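Budget justification, computational time. The allocation requested in the original proposal was used primarily to generate structure tokens for proteins on the priority list. As evidence of use, we reproduce two of the resulting records. The first is shown immediately below.
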Amino acid sequence: ETMATADFTIVKDPRLTTPLKAHRHQFDLQLELTQSLSALNAAVNRIRRMRRQLGALDEAAGEAQADLSTKAKAAAAALLAIEAVLVDVNRESARDILRNPAGLDDGLVDLINTVAISDREPTEQAEAVSREIMAKVTAELARLQALEAGDIAAINRRAADAGIAHVGG
């Protein structure tokens, strides 16, 4: 099967006075925000998978491995705390955004829309808030990595010794 290719040129709307450098800045910031949102969503999926696995591990450990069970519960709670910063864990409908604090994902989506809404360079305020929110996402992802490398890795070692299925990201 062959694909047809076409050469084309993208030209700026002649009605706009925005310099190319400003459009590039807008594109670059949108790309960073989108990548941050993608990393956040991947982390939330991983967290939810690990929380389910920790629940199963807790059940499998039971009374015989009470210490392992306690550690699994604590790790699941730590994962939930990270998830609750990344997303609104209590949201069940679109209207719940009015009832619960927004997650960092909401901030990123709003910023993506704010940066994209005009044919101008992002404002200093949009740039500053974008950097702040992305830094918070990065910090939460670092907390998640530390938890995986520390407590969850230790739980996996204990689970393997006890012949219980491990937790994977």
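The second record produced under the same allocation is shown here.
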Amino acid sequence: MTTEIYLVFPGRGTPRDTMAVSMVHKIVTGEPVSEIYLADSSDDTMKVQAYIDKYIKTDGSLPWRPESLKLLLSYHYFKKHNLHELMDKYFGNKPPKIFVDSGAFSSMTLGSEINLESYIDWIKRYQDIMTIYANLDFINDPVKTYENQKKMEDAGLKPIPVFHTGESIEWLQRYIDEGYTYICLGGMVPYSSDRKKLITWISKCFNTAAESGKPIKFHGFGMTSFDLMKAYPWASCDSSSWSTSFRFGNVHIFDEKKGRFQVVKFRDIKKSYKYAELLRSYGFSPNDIAIGSEIERIKVATLSCMAFLKAEQWLNKRWKKYGANDKLSLWITPANQMGLDSANPEVHGMIDAAVMMNKGAQNE
């Protein structure tokens, strides 16, 4: 079982998010960073480019290099972009893996609607650089979501179907019965405050897949909770949490020894030096977080991006250790190992119960 984390790439082209994905791509591939596309002032562009030049020249050998870089792009935000030109400017001739989401949730939130034909045409135009693309789903309307799946297939595409929280489990069963082996689980973001309900629903999805006896893989849309990432054997998930470093000043650093993220506030000198050893393992200094300036903010964004790739690597080692297989046996980290972001004991009990139910079903 391989778990892939796709970093949600904002469509604004701000210096910090652009800097992060560009620099991590340089670290991953060893390729020179191409000219950076920015929607900001020339002064911002100069700051970013100056830091890139400085970073590349002083980078001898980093103690750790990510294995891959994956981006999730939303059609809602990128439909007016020329993706070929955009990817070439960011990444040269070695673009990262790209997961395309229709952006239906964002569109609904903003009170607009995505045109199916336009979405189909856009995918066909840039399909050569897309690794995966999802169906144009409709929140709270499984019938229309299913109809769109078939219409996209009739147009010659092979989108991943989407099943939402709140929908009858019969729709998930239908997708499984019809032979779909890679399915997106969506609509989870609004349930993030009701962990018990969310965990009950996710457990039901994984149990339904296990009971089918088929090698079903799940993608978790907006799965930003790391304890839920490691509680279930996701095939992939996407997260925008890496960008909180430049949006809210909270730097997420993944600690593979403890299997959790350590969160440090930008310019928090005490905590920056508390995690000095962890920071140096990434090739960064505690001063990169402790001292506040625009250049350090850009560096922090790069660190946050790399930290999520480190978490992806840790997840893959974890599932290999536990012997996860194509039957998607449900495993869970003991509550006392889940870190500061752990849910309450009642929630852990629900997960443990789901594990026992699942194991019992497989042993029958």
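A brief technical remark on that second record: The longest strand covers residues 250-255.
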